[in-house]
Amino acid sequence: MTVQLLLIIFSITITSIGGTSHIWNINEEIDSSVSFRCEIDELNPNAVITWVYRPKIYKIKGVKWLPLYANARRLTQDNHRYIVDYSGYNEKTKKYLSILSINQLKLSDEGIYMCKSNQYQSIASLFNLTISPSMKILPNDGIIELNRVQRSINLSCIVREVSMNTIDPLHLKWYHNNHEIKNSYLIEKPFKHENQATLHLYIRHLSFNDSGLFKCVYDNGKASKNVQIFYTSSSK
Fold this sequence. Notes:
Blueprint: H1 2-10, E1 13-14, E2 22-29, E3 34-41, E4 49-55, E5 63-64, E6 66-70, E7 73-74, E8 82-90, E9 95-102, E10 111-117, E11 125-132, E12 134-138, E13 142-146, E14 152-160, E15 172-176, E16 179-180, E17 186-193, E18 196-204, E19 212-218, E20 223-231
């Protein structure tokens, strides 16, 4: 049974995606994780839900689908980055549920992932995954509340490209309340290493005017992160 199933999957070749399929476009940062949720209507007892993958970059003629999973059985070589949670039939939703998760995303993971049963009437679910540069702000993004005695803060914006091309630090910029930072007391120190770059923002002599939204932007919006800073005046 296993050998027959593998032969069927490897023989899949298509030139287009049918209009009856459900397609979701998903973008995730490099090194992050993603999960694809696939629900299929009630199946017969011998039905199999299969996950296959079509790489974005392929060198073979035609469009080939590579096997990943059948139900919860792995069809590829051992790879802990890929995990399938196959829950079987849910009486409440009246559907079968299968979730494919990929950890530590790489550029090579870009492509289309398809979930489909081997029943003729089953409609495929397709997920078009693209990978974007990763960005993080240190000490953290989100919200930073400064204490009353704090006189300075150092923010670091770190971006990593999906390829190994060197990043030009000039493509990294800091903004404060949607205005590009060019003040003399705000010191920007760009550092670069292969496909990663860091732009430090050092704010001295903090005041109430330094509160607000700080944004780090890479390559005109290719990647961006925000940090909201609340400063409590010493007179409070």
